[in-house]
Amino acid sequence: MGNLFIFGLGYTAKRLRDLLISDGWQVRATGSAGDVAFDDSAAVRNALAQASHVLSSVPPGDGGDPVLDRYGDALSHHWLGYLSSSGVYGDTGGAWVDESAPTGTGRRVARNEADAAWLARDARVFRLPGIYGPGRSTFDRIRAGKAHRIDLPGQVFSRIHVDDIASAIIAALEGDAPAGAYNIADDHPASHNAVVEEACCLLGIAPPPLQSIEEAGLSPMARGFYAENRRVANGKARRVLVWQPTYRDYRSGLTAILAAEGTDAL
């Protein structure tokens, strides 16, 4: 077991923390749900000095990566991890991408730079596609009346269940995985429409109407989501981390979420 310090205790990192603590790890973290204030430099540096492993899930800002900018000089740990995005690959027209694919061509310039900066520090960089799980799935958008089906034939995305992200990181922690990039995605990329339709089917309701992006009135951020089209390959993570996703596709993931909720209707 080890002592992990997490920068940014968000949705994914909380799940990781809970699993690690149940397995005997000591975990401290910044963030609203954490126990150390990010701006308390003395407390953060003291916690870092005691940690054997460090993971950052803090996204970059316009001015760069806040963790590296403020605490980079204190990150001399043997094991560093960073939660990045598969968006660093940019648009591939639906083609598959693995870790050998070029990065830096996408719309997320700050994320590209942060990804490269953590790799330069010999971190394990986990490139994540669309994250979903309990409390953060298509079911929630349907119930809130915010689900859309967009008429974009051929558009496809990869995704990953939050529990599968946690299990991949744990595999990298406990297996002392070598530094480098790892795509953490499920096995079956699919269109957003297919996911919405499956969720509606499981709920026993009709799916929302098919719309153009203009008709859907999407925000600029949401429109940007549809500007890229790619399939993310997870072969390296399977080989090197000796990991595989429990939820290999959106169908199994959605079914598990609904079963855990104990409901089958709105």
Walkthrough of the structure:
This is SDR family NAD(P)-dependent oxidoreductase. InterPro entries: NAD(P)-bd_dom_sf. Keywords: NAD. With 266 residues, the protein is an alpha/beta fold. The chain has a single domain, classed as NAD(P)-binding Rossmann-like Domain (Rossmann fold, 3-Layer(aba) Sandwich), CATH 3.40.50. Helix content is 37%, strand content 16%. It contains eleven helices and twelve strands. The chain has helices at 11-22, 41-50, 66-71, 109-120, 138-143, 162-174, 192-203, 213-216, 220-225, 235-240, 250-261, and strands at 3-7, 26-29, 53-56, 79-85, 96-97, 124-128, 130-132, 149-150, 159-161, 180-183, 210-211, 231-232. A six-stranded parallel β-sheet has the order 2-1-3-4-6-10, with helices on both faces. A two-stranded parallel ribbon has the order 5-12. Strands 7-9 form a two-stranded parallel sheet. Helix 3 (66-71) links the parallel strand 3 (53-56) and strand 4. Helix 1 packs across helix 6 (162-174) and helix 7 (192-203) runs parallel beside helix 11 (250-261). The radius of gyration is 19 Å and the shape is globular. The N and C termini lie far apart (42 Å). The model has no long low-confidence stretch (mean pLDDT 94).
